[in-house]
Amino acid sequence: MRAVSFFLVLGLVSVPAIAAENIPASAAAKEATPSGPGHYASVHGLKMYYEIHGQGETLLLLHGGLSSIPVWPEAIAYFSKNYQVIAPEQMGHGRTADIPSRPMDYHAMAEDTIELLRQLNIKAVYVLGWSDGGIVGFDLAINHPALVKKLAVSGASYTPNVPATPPDAPDHIPQFIREPYERLSPDGAAHWPVILARLRTMWLTQPNIAPEKLATITAPTLFIAGDHDFYSPEYTATMRRFIPNAQLWIAPNSTHGLPKMRAALFNETVGNFFKEPAR
Fold it and tell me: What is the pLDDT of residues 96-119, one digit of tens each?
Protein backbone atom coordinates (compact mmCIF):
# COMPACT_ATOMS: atom_id res chain seq x y z
CA MET A 1 0.00 0.00 0.00
CA ARG A 2 1.42 3.25 -1.05
CA ALA A 3 0.01 6.39 0.59
CA VAL A 4 -2.40 7.56 3.25
CA SER A 5 -5.35 6.93 0.96
CA PHE A 6 -3.83 3.59 0.07
CA PHE A 7 -4.16 2.50 3.67
CA LEU A 8 -7.87 3.16 3.44
CA VAL A 9 -8.45 0.51 0.79
CA LEU A 10 -6.16 -2.51 1.14
CA GLY A 11 -3.89 -3.35 -1.79
CA LEU A 12 -2.82 -6.79 -2.97
CA VAL A 13 -1.39 -8.44 -6.11
CA SER A 14 -1.53 -11.75 -7.67
CA VAL A 15 0.64 -13.52 -10.18
CA PRO A 16 -0.93 -16.02 -12.59
CA ALA A 17 -0.69 -19.46 -13.98
CA ILE A 18 2.23 -21.58 -15.20
CA ALA A 19 2.39 -23.40 -18.49
CA ALA A 20 0.75 -26.80 -18.82
CA GLU A 21 4.10 -28.43 -19.41
CA ASN A 22 5.37 -27.34 -16.01
CA ILE A 23 5.79 -29.91 -13.29
CA PRO A 24 3.60 -29.46 -10.18
CA ALA A 25 5.21 -27.50 -7.37
CA SER A 26 8.18 -29.47 -6.10
CA ALA A 27 8.46 -30.68 -2.55
CA ALA A 28 12.07 -29.49 -2.55
CA ALA A 29 11.15 -25.98 -1.41
CA LYS A 30 8.84 -27.11 1.36
CA GLU A 31 10.39 -26.94 4.80
CA ALA A 32 8.89 -27.39 8.26
CA THR A 33 5.49 -26.05 7.36
CA PRO A 34 2.12 -25.43 8.90
CA SER A 35 -0.69 -27.80 8.04
CA GLY A 36 -2.79 -26.87 5.02
CA PRO A 37 -1.67 -24.95 1.93
CA GLY A 38 1.14 -23.01 3.64
CA HIS A 39 4.85 -23.72 3.23
CA TYR A 40 8.22 -22.08 3.82
CA ALA A 41 11.23 -21.89 1.51
CA SER A 42 14.78 -20.68 2.13
CA VAL A 43 15.15 -17.79 -0.32
CA HIS A 44 18.14 -15.42 -0.28
CA GLY A 45 18.36 -15.55 3.50
CA LEU A 46 14.61 -15.34 4.02
CA LYS A 47 12.30 -17.96 5.43
CA MET A 48 9.71 -17.12 2.81
CA TYR A 49 6.11 -18.11 3.41
CA TYR A 50 3.92 -19.10 0.46
CA GLU A 51 0.72 -20.98 -0.20
CA ILE A 52 -0.38 -23.29 -3.02
CA HIS A 53 -4.04 -23.68 -3.92
CA GLY A 54 -5.67 -25.67 -6.72
CA GLN A 55 -4.28 -27.50 -9.72
CA GLY A 56 -3.53 -26.69 -13.34
CA GLU A 57 -1.43 -23.98 -14.92
CA THR A 58 0.24 -21.79 -12.34
CA LEU A 59 -1.04 -18.39 -11.37
CA LEU A 60 1.27 -16.27 -9.26
CA LEU A 61 -0.61 -13.97 -6.90
CA LEU A 62 1.39 -10.93 -5.70
CA HIS A 63 0.11 -8.89 -2.76
CA GLY A 64 0.48 -5.17 -2.17
CA GLY A 65 2.55 -3.22 0.32
CA LEU A 66 1.87 -3.92 4.02
CA SER A 67 -0.52 -6.61 2.85
CA SER A 68 -0.43 -10.40 2.79
CA ILE A 69 -2.30 -13.44 1.52
CA PRO A 70 -5.40 -12.96 3.75
CA VAL A 71 -6.20 -9.73 1.92
CA TRP A 72 -7.82 -11.36 -1.09
CA PRO A 73 -9.31 -14.77 -0.37
CA GLU A 74 -11.82 -14.10 -3.16
CA ALA A 75 -9.06 -14.20 -5.78
CA ILE A 76 -7.64 -17.44 -4.39
CA ALA A 77 -11.08 -19.06 -4.32
CA TYR A 78 -11.86 -17.92 -7.88
CA PHE A 79 -8.60 -18.73 -9.64
CA SER A 80 -7.83 -21.97 -7.78
CA LYS A 81 -10.81 -23.55 -9.55
CA ASN A 82 -8.80 -23.58 -12.79
CA TYR A 83 -5.21 -22.79 -11.84
CA GLN A 84 -2.52 -23.77 -9.41
CA VAL A 85 -2.33 -20.53 -7.43
CA ILE A 86 1.00 -19.74 -5.79
CA ALA A 87 0.87 -16.83 -3.38
CA PRO A 88 4.14 -15.77 -1.70
CA GLU A 89 4.52 -13.23 1.09
CA GLN A 90 7.43 -10.86 0.56
CA MET A 91 10.04 -9.89 3.15
CA GLY A 92 8.45 -8.19 6.13
CA HIS A 93 4.92 -9.08 5.00
CA GLY A 94 2.59 -11.64 6.49
CA ARG A 95 4.48 -14.65 7.80
CA THR A 96 7.82 -13.80 6.13
CA ALA A 97 10.09 -12.09 8.65
CA ASP A 98 11.83 -8.80 7.97
CA ILE A 99 15.59 -8.46 7.59
CA PRO A 100 16.14 -4.83 8.67
CA SER A 101 19.71 -4.77 7.33
CA ARG A 102 18.39 -5.49 3.83
CA PRO A 103 16.80 -2.53 2.02
CA MET A 104 13.23 -2.79 0.77
CA ASP A 105 13.51 -2.98 -3.01
CA TYR A 106 11.12 -4.01 -5.77
CA HIS A 107 13.80 -5.74 -7.83
CA ALA A 108 14.92 -7.76 -4.79
CA MET A 109 11.29 -8.82 -4.23
CA ALA A 110 11.11 -9.94 -7.85
CA GLU A 111 14.32 -11.93 -7.55
CA ASP A 112 13.10 -13.56 -4.32
CA THR A 113 9.98 -14.59 -6.23
CA ILE A 114 12.07 -15.96 -9.09
CA GLU A 115 14.12 -18.07 -6.69
CA LEU A 116 10.97 -19.46 -5.08
CA LEU A 117 9.60 -20.42 -8.50
CA ARG A 118 12.95 -21.99 -9.41
CA GLN A 119 12.80 -24.15 -6.29
CA LEU A 120 9.26 -25.16 -7.18
CA ASN A 121 10.36 -26.05 -10.73
CA ILE A 122 7.94 -23.57 -12.26
CA LYS A 123 9.05 -22.17 -15.60
CA ALA A 124 6.13 -20.07 -16.83
CA VAL A 125 3.33 -18.22 -15.07
CA TYR A 126 0.42 -15.89 -15.50
CA VAL A 127 1.09 -12.94 -13.22
CA LEU A 128 -1.52 -10.95 -11.33
CA GLY A 129 -0.17 -8.11 -9.20
CA TRP A 130 -1.96 -5.58 -7.06
CA SER A 131 -0.23 -2.24 -6.31
CA ASP A 132 3.32 -3.09 -5.13
CA GLY A 133 2.72 -6.59 -6.49
CA GLY A 134 2.05 -5.11 -9.91
CA ILE A 135 5.40 -3.32 -9.80
CA VAL A 136 7.06 -6.64 -8.95
CA GLY A 137 5.16 -8.06 -11.93
CA PHE A 138 6.68 -5.42 -14.23
CA ASP A 139 10.15 -6.41 -13.01
CA LEU A 140 9.47 -10.08 -13.68
CA ALA A 141 8.20 -9.37 -17.20
CA ILE A 142 11.16 -7.09 -18.02
CA ASN A 143 13.97 -9.20 -16.60
CA HIS A 144 12.53 -12.71 -17.04
CA PRO A 145 10.40 -12.48 -20.19
CA ALA A 146 10.32 -16.25 -20.76
CA LEU A 147 8.66 -16.70 -17.37
CA VAL A 148 5.61 -14.46 -17.84
CA LYS A 149 2.85 -15.79 -20.08
CA LYS A 150 0.47 -12.92 -19.36
CA LEU A 151 0.59 -10.00 -16.95
CA ALA A 152 -2.32 -8.24 -15.21
CA VAL A 153 -1.58 -5.35 -12.86
CA SER A 154 -3.97 -3.24 -10.81
CA GLY A 155 -3.13 0.12 -9.26
CA ALA A 156 0.56 -0.10 -10.19
CA SER A 157 3.00 2.67 -11.08
CA TYR A 158 6.29 3.09 -12.91
CA THR A 159 7.44 6.18 -10.99
CA PRO A 160 7.83 6.85 -7.23
CA ASN A 161 4.79 7.71 -5.17
CA VAL A 162 5.26 10.77 -2.97
CA PRO A 163 2.37 11.10 -0.51
CA ALA A 164 1.44 14.59 0.67
CA THR A 165 1.15 13.30 4.24
CA PRO A 166 3.56 10.72 5.69
CA PRO A 167 1.63 7.44 5.98
CA ASP A 168 3.06 6.56 9.36
CA ALA A 169 0.45 7.99 11.71
CA PRO A 170 -1.34 5.05 13.38
CA ASP A 171 -4.73 6.75 13.04
CA HIS A 172 -4.41 6.69 9.26
CA ILE A 173 -4.03 2.92 9.02
CA PRO A 174 -7.20 0.84 9.27
CA GLN A 175 -7.29 -2.08 11.64
CA PHE A 176 -8.10 -4.49 8.81
CA ILE A 177 -4.58 -3.86 7.51
CA ARG A 178 -2.74 -3.65 10.80
CA GLU A 179 -4.48 -6.56 12.56
CA PRO A 180 -3.26 -9.30 10.16
CA TYR A 181 0.28 -7.95 10.43
CA GLU A 182 0.20 -8.02 14.22
CA ARG A 183 -1.37 -11.47 14.22
CA LEU A 184 0.85 -13.12 11.59
CA SER A 185 4.24 -11.40 11.60
CA PRO A 186 7.07 -13.42 13.16
CA ASP A 187 8.63 -10.05 14.02
CA GLY A 188 5.80 -9.23 16.41
CA ALA A 189 3.46 -6.26 16.65
CA ALA A 190 6.23 -3.99 17.95
CA HIS A 191 7.96 -4.19 14.54
CA TRP A 192 5.04 -2.43 12.80
CA PRO A 193 6.55 1.10 12.83
CA VAL A 194 9.85 -0.30 11.57
CA ILE A 195 8.34 -2.01 8.52
CA LEU A 196 6.13 1.00 7.85
CA ALA A 197 9.13 3.34 7.79
CA ARG A 198 11.15 0.97 5.61
CA LEU A 199 8.35 0.68 3.07
CA ARG A 200 7.77 4.40 3.04
CA THR A 201 11.44 4.95 2.19
CA MET A 202 11.02 2.63 -0.79
CA TRP A 203 7.77 4.27 -1.92
CA LEU A 204 9.42 7.70 -1.93
CA THR A 205 12.25 6.57 -4.20
CA GLN A 206 10.90 3.63 -6.25
CA PRO A 207 9.96 2.38 -8.76
CA ASN A 208 12.04 4.01 -11.47
CA ILE A 209 11.07 2.10 -14.58
CA ALA A 210 12.01 3.88 -17.78
CA PRO A 211 9.36 3.86 -20.52
CA GLU A 212 11.82 2.15 -22.84
CA LYS A 213 12.11 -0.67 -20.28
CA LEU A 214 8.33 -1.09 -20.13
CA ALA A 215 8.37 -1.19 -23.92
CA THR A 216 10.48 -4.38 -23.80
CA ILE A 217 7.66 -6.33 -22.13
CA THR A 218 6.51 -8.94 -24.61
CA ALA A 219 3.88 -10.69 -22.47
CA PRO A 220 0.27 -9.71 -23.20
CA THR A 221 -0.48 -7.13 -20.53
CA LEU A 222 -3.66 -5.78 -18.94
CA PHE A 223 -3.46 -2.49 -17.04
CA ILE A 224 -6.21 -2.01 -14.46
CA ALA A 225 -7.13 0.97 -12.31
CA GLY A 226 -10.16 2.41 -10.62
CA ASP A 227 -11.35 5.78 -11.84
CA HIS A 228 -10.62 7.00 -8.28
CA ASP A 229 -7.35 5.09 -7.86
CA PHE A 230 -4.14 6.58 -6.45
CA TYR A 231 -3.08 7.33 -9.99
CA SER A 232 -5.27 9.05 -12.53
CA PRO A 233 -6.75 7.15 -15.47
CA GLU A 234 -4.49 9.27 -17.68
CA TYR A 235 -1.39 8.05 -15.81
CA THR A 236 -2.40 4.41 -16.27
CA ALA A 237 -3.29 5.02 -19.93
CA THR A 238 0.18 6.48 -20.45
CA MET A 239 1.78 3.31 -19.10
CA ARG A 240 -0.42 1.23 -21.35
CA ARG A 241 0.88 3.10 -24.43
CA PHE A 242 4.46 2.11 -23.60
CA ILE A 243 3.74 -1.61 -24.11
CA PRO A 244 2.75 -2.79 -27.59
CA ASN A 245 -0.76 -4.25 -27.77
CA ALA A 246 -1.39 -3.80 -24.04
CA GLN A 247 -4.99 -3.56 -22.87
CA LEU A 248 -6.55 -1.06 -20.47
CA TRP A 249 -9.48 -1.33 -18.06
CA ILE A 250 -10.49 1.70 -16.03
CA ALA A 251 -13.23 0.51 -13.68
CA PRO A 252 -15.88 3.13 -12.96
CA ASN A 253 -16.84 4.01 -9.41
CA SER A 254 -13.74 2.20 -8.13
CA THR A 255 -10.74 2.96 -5.93
CA HIS A 256 -7.35 1.38 -5.34
CA GLY A 257 -9.22 -1.36 -3.50
CA LEU A 258 -10.90 -2.61 -6.70
CA PRO A 259 -9.51 -6.19 -6.46
CA LYS A 260 -11.04 -6.51 -2.99
CA MET A 261 -14.03 -4.20 -2.99
CA ARG A 262 -15.37 -5.38 -6.36
CA ALA A 263 -13.80 -8.82 -6.30
CA ALA A 264 -16.34 -10.69 -8.47
CA LEU A 265 -16.06 -8.21 -11.35
CA PHE A 266 -12.30 -7.92 -10.99
CA ASN A 267 -11.64 -11.67 -10.93
CA GLU A 268 -13.94 -12.38 -13.87
CA THR A 269 -12.31 -9.64 -15.96
CA VAL A 270 -8.79 -10.84 -15.22
CA GLY A 271 -9.85 -14.47 -15.73
CA ASN A 272 -11.25 -13.65 -19.17
CA PHE A 273 -8.03 -11.83 -20.08
CA PHE A 274 -5.92 -14.82 -19.10
CA LYS A 275 -8.12 -17.17 -21.13
CA GLU A 276 -8.44 -15.15 -24.34
CA PRO A 277 -6.02 -15.83 -27.23
CA ALA A 278 -3.06 -13.46 -27.37
CA ARG A 279 -3.51 -10.67 -29.89
Answer: 999 999 999 999 999 999 999 999
